Amino acid sequence: MKDGFLKVAAATPKVRVADPDYNASRIISMAEEAAENGAALIVFPELCITAYTCGDLFLQDTLLSGAEKALSRILKASSYHSVMMVVGVPFRFKGALYNTAAFVHKGKLLGLVPKINIPNYSEFYEARHFTSGKDIKPINVSFCGEQTVFGENLLFKCVNFTELVIGCEICEDLWVTCPPSLTLASGGATVIVNPSASDETIGKAEYRKQLISSHSARLLCSYIYADAGMGESTQDLIFSGHDFIAENGVILAESKRFNTGIIYSELDLSRLMHERRRMNTFNNELNNCTEIEFELPSRDTRLTRTFSQTPFVPKNRDELDSRCEEIITMQATGLATRMQHTRCKTAVIGLSGGLDSTLALIVTVHAFDMLGIDRKGIHAVTMPCFGTTTRTKSNALRLAECYGATLHTVDIKASVNQHFEDIGHSWDNHDVTFENAQARTRTLVLMDLANKMGGMVIGTGDLSELALGWATYNGDHMSMYGVNASIPKTLVRYLTAYEASKVEGELKKTLQDVLDTPVSPELLPPKDGEISQKTEELVGPYELHDFFLYYMVRLGFRPRKIFRIARHAFDGIYDDETIKKWLVTFIRRFFMQQFKRSCLPDGPKVGSVTLSPRGDWRMPSDAVSELWLSEAENL
């Protein structure tokens, strides 16, 4: 439960139809296995104590009494471990029979949740045997020799892990227009469990998967779905045991169909709570749900779920390509709209031959093509100075030529030297003044050229640089429209690579060389003609900083949790000391450099993280980092 993680399981036991004692043994065995594997919650299928396909045997007292005795066995066995169990069982009450989910924990029957929507169409005829639990207000009942609560809208709340609140709906309840989980989630449930018996037909598996995924996203919840499988009667139907564990639209675990067994994953409940707090339209309301409290032993959950090293970049190649196309189109649309509004037909870009300015040029080319404007209106300006290498300069020249832009070369060495003389700064003193004077001179050139041509200066800085403050205030920090402002460095690389995959010849070769060039501001003189100032050696690997940025800004994780999942994601790549070092650097710079983000130029939001002071990130420039830094430094 540390850091908000909870290990859970969904199980499909092999059952025998109308053999509760046998089925109870399988359920008990699986619960014990889940306990050994560190799970805190396990969900079993609908009516798994009897099997779902008993038909008219559900009208037999013999079967119903056998089911009650079997649940009593399960209750007794559960006292030897601390796993919360959700088990499907028929329950008789006031002359009616209900299809229920029993919540079992440490020898206690905490509650019985009835199925609300009883299907009676196509292959389903449950209404022949079962009554809907709709409008049954929670009431104390006796079952298995225990006093428990029976009724709809029950919430099972963990008193020592407040993020864990469990609600339940059963099979068909998910498929209707207004599922019970809507009420449960708005009442505070972060985990919805669904004991199910969903038969298999062609195409249904993918539909089921999409339904569970989208429903967990809509409710900002975790969803555990346990499906009936082997052993159910195949007289007319087939059950595949298609189990899922989902979280906010993401399938964390999925079983192989037509198998029995257990799937596991860790839920991140603190992440869900952050999302609900962030989205103030999420309907947290006091309603008529009844809370039943329980307690779980504290444990440090070992992580097995995967965390992408590049959370801004899709893992699937086809998805990555379509995402890259969409992103470049969005960037270009933002710029094209701004150009139309200002009646501007000229763009000015400082083209260094590096990744960021290359992407800015690509986006500008797309925008001009959208508007049907001659690419000669794109003025690519290369401004060599003390740190410029032959490699980057030649790449800039070739890019401008290949894209049909108008090229300008403005050597700023004389201007910068004159500036040093004016302010009394020695050329030999390679301090921050030495570096920033070059960046500000370049911005001056670009702004004045834009004024001269009636054009617009296109900003090249990316999201990662803004997070770290790796930009010169009123230098490359400033532009008239920043097309890369919400694109992190790891994504810049993929977008450029995507463009390279679509072109041929000299342009493809040049883009590939840009991708192979070390990231550098090139503000210090080169050594032996090679780049001497490599950004990632100074501020750390961008893949780490983008990872930190995503989890700190997008999900609000604390340093301890970010460090933990970074260790897991980058296992074998970076050691603990390296991760800690750059996490401390990220936090320190993120707070110190907010003043630069507080006056950013306009630029389009593209992804889920942006640092625009007019949009997603409103942080005072004088905020103190002590709380975050002290936790990171003491890891």
TrEMBL record:
Keywords, in A-Z order: ATP-binding, Ligase, NAD, Nucleotide-binding
Entry binding sites for deamido-NAD(+): 436, 465, 470-473, 596
Enzyme Commission number(s) of this protein: 6.3.5.1
CC per GO annotation: cytoplasm
Catalysed reactions, semicolon-separated: deamido-NAD(+) + L-glutamine + ATP + H2O = L-glutamate + AMP + diphosphate + NAD(+) + H(+)
Active site (record annotation): 46 (proton acceptor), 115 (for glutaminase activity), 171 (nucleophile)
Pfam families: CN_hydrolase (PF00795), NAD_synthase (PF02540)
BP-aspect Gene Ontology terms: NAD+ biosynthetic process
InterPro entries linked to this entry: C-N_Hydrolase, C-N_Hydrolase_sf, Gln-dep_NAD_synthase, NAD+_synth_C, NAD/GMP_synthase, NAD_synthase, Rossmann-like_a/b/a_fold
Domain CN hydrolase: 6-269
GO MF annotations, alphabetized: ATP binding; glutaminase activity; NAD+ synthase (glutamine-hydrolyzing) activity; NAD+ synthase activity
Residues that bind L-glutamine: 121, 198, 204
Residue numbers binding ATP: 350-357, 460
Pathway(s) annotated for this protein in UniProt: Cofactor biosynthesis; NAD(+) biosynthesis; NAD(+) from deamido-NAD(+) (L-Gln route): step 1/1
Taxonomic superkingdom: Bacteria
Classification via HAMAP family: NadE_glutamine_dep
Family: Belongs to the NAD synthetase family. In the C-terminal section; belongs to the NAD synthetase family.
Entry function: Catalyzes the ATP-dependent amidation of deamido-NAD to form NAD. Uses L-glutamine as a nitrogen source.
Protein name: Glutamine-dependent NAD(+) synthetase
Organism, as annotated: Candidatus Butyricicoccus avistercoris
Gene: nadE
